[in-house]
């Protein structure tokens, strides 16, 4: 079977769904290819800083989440070795037009469902695994990407956007080097206390050399928790068993953490517990690499996987979606509602120019935040972590993530 589409998005994760929605807002239909048989909404929570919430506002779905999940403005950091605790702020020193930076923890499932609800039911084609890409120029001078799926389907697209994550087929086709292992891994999960957890709305972090754990309230009953630790493991020893993961955290890795933290982990909703190596793409790969080729580009983790220490994985993907939608939407509207390949190529190049240095900065800042917070032993590293980072730089670093990705172009109505 062979079909033709104007725009094809590979991957129905946060980046892919948000990009499809951004394009819908400017009057464009996109087909989203998802290799799984259903929406992959499993997992714990996504940290959304103000830049992510602003992007959701431009996409028209922020109201579905912000009214439910309150912001977390402060973080309490406890040194497990000596019990010393210090508080710092997420709000940062950077204020724009009187607005403060903040972070909200939102269940991944809720975020994805909020995006999917705004899309036509036929937007996502499930069980559609991309296995190869070819591009060619037609006799009319049109640039076409020919996609082959594992079921034999051929799709010809005027625009191809790879939102297919860490192991992106589209990024590989563009020649981007694969993400590298940071030397750390993370266990994450959600815990629900039906009668209420009783914690105030702040992040409670616990640190020791090579380990950092935390829990953060999502609502009065729900908590998100994680443990990040140095590891080069592939995770095979856990076999995806959430019970083994919880036991590893509570009886081995974090066994000397405060009882409050251990209680939260022990009561985890096992369906939400995951383990993952922390991967990132080095900044110099994005400086030198091809982030687009003609009418093909990437967004989200396919472009810029980063460590989670600034909570920018989800937020930056939402930024990508709005900015890409803005550039393609402007081209579409300026050409009387038509996809003109030459103009779309210029629009994609404009998107890449706007995103390249922004995401390079986020990757670098996330790496430095990880290095400072998860320091190993030694008086110098303790000085850097406890004095220089948490007391002087933490709020500034988080504050610097504040960013408004800009509004989507307005689609003229019949009244106009």
From TrEMBL:
InterPro entries: FAD-bd (IPR002938), FAD/NAD-bd_sf (IPR036188), MOase (IPR044560). Residues 6-328 form the FAD-binding domain. It holds the Pfam family FAD_binding_3. One of its GO terms (molecular function) is monooxygenase activity. SUPFAM superfamilies: FAD/NAD(P)-binding domain. Keywords: Monooxygenase, Oxidoreductase. The keyword Oxidoreductase applies. Belongs to the 3-hydroxybenzoate 6-hydroxylase family. PANTHER family: FAD/NAD(P)-BINDING OXIDOREDUCTASE FAMILY PROTEIN, OS04G0423100 PROTEIN. This is FAD-binding domain-containing protein. It comes from Protea cynaroides.
């Amino acid at each position: 079977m062979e079909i033709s589409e104007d725009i094809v998005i590979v991957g129905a994760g946060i980046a892919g769904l948000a990009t499809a929605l951004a394009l819908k807002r400017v009057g464009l239909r996109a087909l989203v290819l998802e290799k799984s048989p259903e929406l992959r909404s499993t997992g714990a929570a996504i940290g959304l800083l103000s830049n992510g919430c602003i992007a959701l506002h431009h996409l028209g779905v922020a109201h579905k989440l912000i009214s439910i999940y309150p912001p977390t403005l402060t973080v309490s950091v406890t040194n497990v070795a000596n019990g010393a605790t210090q508080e710092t702020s997420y709000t940062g020193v950077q204020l724009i037009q009187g607005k403060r930076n903040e972070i909200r923890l939102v269940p991944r499932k809720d975020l994805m469902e909020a995006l999917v609800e705004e899309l036509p039911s036929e937007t996502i084609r499930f069980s559609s695994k991309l296995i190869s890409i070819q591009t060619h120029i037609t006799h009319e001078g049109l640039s076409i990407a020919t996609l082959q799926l594992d079921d034999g389907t051929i799709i010809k697209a005027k625009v191809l956007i790879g939102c297919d994550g860490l192991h992106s087929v589209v990024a590989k086709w563009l020649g981007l080097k694969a993400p590298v292992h940071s030397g750390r891994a993370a266990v994450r999960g959600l815990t629900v206390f039906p009668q209420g957890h009783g914690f105030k709305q702040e992040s409670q972090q616990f640190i020791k050399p090579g380990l950092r754990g935390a829990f953060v309230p999502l609502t009065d009953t729900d908590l998100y928790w994680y443990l990040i630790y140095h590891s080069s493991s592939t995770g095979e020893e856990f076999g995806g068993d959430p019970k083994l993961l919880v036991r590893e955290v509570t009886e081995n890795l974090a066994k000397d953490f405060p009882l409050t933290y251990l209680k939260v982990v022990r009561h985890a909703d096992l369906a939400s517990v995951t383990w993952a190596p922390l991967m990132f793409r080095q900044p110099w790969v994005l400086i030198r690499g091809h982030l687009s080729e003609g009418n093909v580009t990437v967004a989200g983790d396919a472009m810029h996987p980063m460590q989670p220490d600034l909570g920018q994985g989800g937020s930056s993907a939402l930024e990508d979606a709005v900015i890409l939608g803005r550039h393609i939407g402007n081209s579409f509207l300026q050409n009387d509602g038509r996809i003109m390949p030459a103009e779309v190529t210029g629009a994609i190049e404009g998107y890449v120019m706007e995103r390249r240095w922004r995401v390079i900065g986020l990757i670098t800042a996330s790496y430095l935040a990880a290095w400072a917070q998860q320091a190993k032993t030694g008086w110098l590293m303790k000085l850097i972590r406890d004095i220089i980072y948490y007391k002087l730089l933490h709020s500034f670093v988080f504050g610097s993530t504040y960013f408004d990705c800009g509004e989507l172009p307005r689609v003229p109505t019949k009244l106009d």
